[in-house]
């Protein structure tokens, strides 16, 4: 039976791979993001099971305005929007700039997930799945970005507790280095890339599809007793225990 799926940040990279996975299963997929062009291109590739809505997930007014675009019921919400906003800013020169830098990462990676989840909360079906994309940075430490992703994991614990009695699960998928995304904004040197791969046990970069299949599993009937968890998909670079 087809499900209603929402993927934020679904126009490129990991989000696009996740949306493609659900669309291939016959689900109805709504992708959101700030840029219309990537969303339009991705929707066209996914076919008639997909549609898009332009929305800045960190803007509460924009998120609230998304209400009319949502399906009446939501079976899967994937909070994928985010990224390290430090790549888009110069190094902070004073405390005001430092505060702005931290707020930008918190809004992009944590607040966006909180707002979207709250928006669809009353539309979630019994046995729905909320899956948020975290980062290995939450465990290794990476300034504002790592702190924001660590906050996402902590918030997810309370979310899982709040939604659990309805049969709704809430989990975080935590990628390591994933190739073929816009994460590094073309600023990743070959030396740094080689070092990230060498740090894994698998000796290869992760792919968007690695994350997509993990998300798909967490949304499947086979994962109904998995909730409140962080699943690391990092090739063993940072093992959990």
What distinguishing features does this structure have?
single chain, 241 residues, alpha/beta, Rossmann fold, seven-stranded parallel β-sheet, 8 helices, 41% helix
Task: Please describe what this structure looks like.
By secondary structure, this protein is α/β, with parallel strands linked by helices. The protein has one domain (4-233): NAD(P)-binding Rossmann-like Domain (Rossmann fold, 3-Layer(aba) Sandwich), CATH 3.40.50.720. Helix content is 41%, strand content 18%. The protein contains eight helices and seven strands. Strands 3-2-1-4-5-6-7 form a seven-stranded parallel sheet, sandwiched between helices. Helix 1 (13-24) crosses helix 8 and helix 4 (95-120) runs parallel beside helix 6 (143-163). The model has no long low-confidence stretch (mean pLDDT 93).
- What number of domains? 1
Average pLDDT reading: 93
**Poorly predicted runs:** none
Instruction: Kindly name the structural category.
Output: alpha/beta
Order of helices and strands: EHEHEHEHEHHEHHE
Give, in spatial order, the strands making up the sheet with the most strands: 3-2-1-4-5-6-7
What general outline do the C-alpha atoms trace? globular
Short description:
It contains eight helices and seven strands; from the N terminus they run βαβαβαβαβααβααβ.
């Amino acid at each position: 039976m087809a499900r209603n799926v929402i993927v934020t940040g679904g126009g490129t990279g990991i989000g696009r791979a996740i949306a493609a996975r659900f669309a291939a299963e016959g689900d109805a997929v709504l992708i959101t993001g700030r840029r219309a062009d990537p969303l339009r291109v991705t929707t066209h590739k996914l076919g008639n099971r997909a549609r898009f809505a332009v929305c800045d997930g960190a803007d509460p007014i924009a998120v609230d305005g998304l209400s009319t675009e949502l399906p009446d019921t939501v079976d899967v919400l994937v909070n994928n929007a985010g990224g390290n906003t430090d790549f888009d800013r110069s190094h902070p020169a004073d405390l005001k700039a430092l505060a702005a830098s931290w707020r930008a990462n918190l809004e992009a990676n944590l607040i966006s997930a909180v707002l979207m989840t709250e928006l669809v909360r009353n539309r979630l079906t019994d046995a729905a799945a909320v899956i948020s994309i975290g980062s290995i940075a939450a465990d290794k430490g990476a300034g504002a970005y790592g702190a924001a992703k660590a906050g996402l994991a902590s918030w997810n614990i309370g979310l899982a507790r709040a939604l659990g009695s309805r049969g709704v699960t809430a989990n975080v998928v935590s990628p390591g280095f994933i190739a073929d995304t816009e994460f590094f904004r073309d600023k990743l040197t070959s030396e740094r890339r080689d070092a990230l791969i060498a740090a894994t046990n698998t000796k290869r970069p992760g792919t968007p599809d690695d994350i997509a299949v993990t998300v798909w599993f967490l949304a499947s009937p086979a994962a109904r007793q998995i909730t409140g968890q962080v699943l690391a998909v990092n090739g063993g670079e940072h093992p959990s225990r």
